[in-house]
Every structure is written in structure tokens, then in C-alpha cells.
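Per your request, structure below.
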């Protein structure tokens, strides 16, 4: 590339002052400091960067048992005593069958949507036992929920291994009393907000993936 006298002058001035991060010399170079995520893409339009969520296979006529992460490779995190998934093992996955444009005919329709797309307990029961080994879960299986990180009522993929994890019981949970997780009412509140047009489907999905404990407050729904 041939440098003009003006380009050389700009370069020398920059070097002497040592106060610029990039210099245009008439070519196509652009500073790498620009954010790849546009402002307002985070939950609630906060502008926070959010990662893309994987898209699964969607509802199937016949589900098969999905391969799970290697034994002991997944690790629970805890926030205020509440269990959180390992993002490396369970980053979440959405169903291509549910979009912002078809909410009324899918997750928001009367008569329910989830029962028609949920895998059988024959499939999820086997997956749950395998996933417990992945997470090193040794508690009572009856007290743990094989949970969709992005719930079916929020357009989560029904049987993608990236969207399912063995969720331990909440702190103080009485052993042997069955599943009763605080994440469930959060999912229901988000579903209501999506169907009422208070938040978009994508905002709800990103909020639950980022941290289900703070999902409602991040979207100003608490």
C-alpha cells in the first residue's frame, strides 16, 4: 500500500504523542476494540453482552436417549445455597419450533403445549441416571429433578443434552419429600410475562440461562 504524505504525517504525529490506539493510513484497518454485540441486546435492554444459545432438534415423534457428558466432568455452582448448572455441560438449547412469531400457537396457546412435546419418562429416566454420573450427584434421585434449563414453556428444546441437567433439591429440602425446586415458579412467571408481551421470548431465555436466581430481577419482573 502506497502511503501519502498526509498518512506519514499522521503516523509520525501519533508516534510522537503516543496517544492513539489506531491510525488510518488510507487502508481498511479498523480498531479491534469495537464490541461485537450491539447495545440493548442483554436482558431488559441493558446492553450487556449475551452469548448465543444453541438451537436443538426440536420436538420429535420418537425420542432416543441422548449421550451425556463424561462421568464427573460437570460441576455444580451454588448461589445463596441454590444449585446452578455447569455452563460447560448445560449451556441451554432452544427449540426451533418456538419463535417470537408463533407464541400464540405454541407455548401461549390454551390447552397447553408442553405435554405434546415432552419426552417419555422411559427416555428421560435413563438420561437422568447418566447425567447424575456426569455431575457426580449422589443424593436421592427422587428428590432431584431432571430439569430443562430453558423450560419447555419458554421454548427450550425437549431432549437436547445441552438443555437438561440433574438439579439437586433446594437448601432445607426434606429428604424423601420429592421434587420441589424454586426454579419452577421463576419459569412460570417468565412464561406469563412472555405471553403478556412484557418481555420477548429471547429475553426470557437469555435471563434463565444467565442465572435463574436473578432472572426475574434482571428483567424487572420481581
Amino acid at each position: 500500500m502506497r502511503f501519502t504524505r498526509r498518512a506519514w504525517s499522521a503516523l509520525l504525529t501519533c508516534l510522537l504523542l503516543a496517544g492513539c490506539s489506531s491510525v488510518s493510513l488510507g487502508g481498511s484497518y479498523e480498531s479491534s476494540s469495537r464490541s461485537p454485540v450491539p447495545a440493548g441486546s442483554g436482558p431488559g435492554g441493558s446492553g450487556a453482552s449475551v452469548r448465543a444459545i444453541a438451537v436443538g432438534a426440536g420436538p420429535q415423534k420418537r425420542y432416543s436417549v441422548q449421550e451425556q457428558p463424561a462421568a464427573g466432568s460437570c460441576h455444580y455452582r451454588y448461589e445463596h445455597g441454590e444449585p446452578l448448572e455447569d455452563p460447560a455441560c448445560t449451556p441451554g438449547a432452544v427449540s426451533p419450533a418456538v419463535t417470537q412469531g408463533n407464541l400464540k400457537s405454541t407455548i401461549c396457546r390454551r390447552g397447553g403445549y408442553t405435554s405434546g412435546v415432552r419426552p417419555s419418562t422411559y427416555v428421560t429416566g435413563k438420561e437422568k441416571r447418566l447425567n447424575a454420573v456426569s455431575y457426580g450427584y449422589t443424593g436421592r434421585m427422587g428428590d432431584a429433578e431432571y430439569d430443562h434449563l430453558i423450560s419447555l414453556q419458554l421454548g427450550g428444546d425437549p431432549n437436547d443434552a445441552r438443555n437438561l441437567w440433574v438439579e439437586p433439591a433446594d437448601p432445607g429440602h426434606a429428604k424423601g419429600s420429592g421434587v420441589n425446586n424454586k426454579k419452577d415458579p421463576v419459569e412460570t412467571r417468565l412464561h406469563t410475562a412472555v405471553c403478556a408481551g412484557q418481555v420477548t421470548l429471547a429475553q426470557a431465555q437469555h435471563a434463565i440461562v444467565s442465572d435463574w436466581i436473578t432472572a426475574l430481577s434482571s428483567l424487572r419482573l420481581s
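Residues 1-48 have pLDDT under 50 and may be disordered.

Regards,
D.
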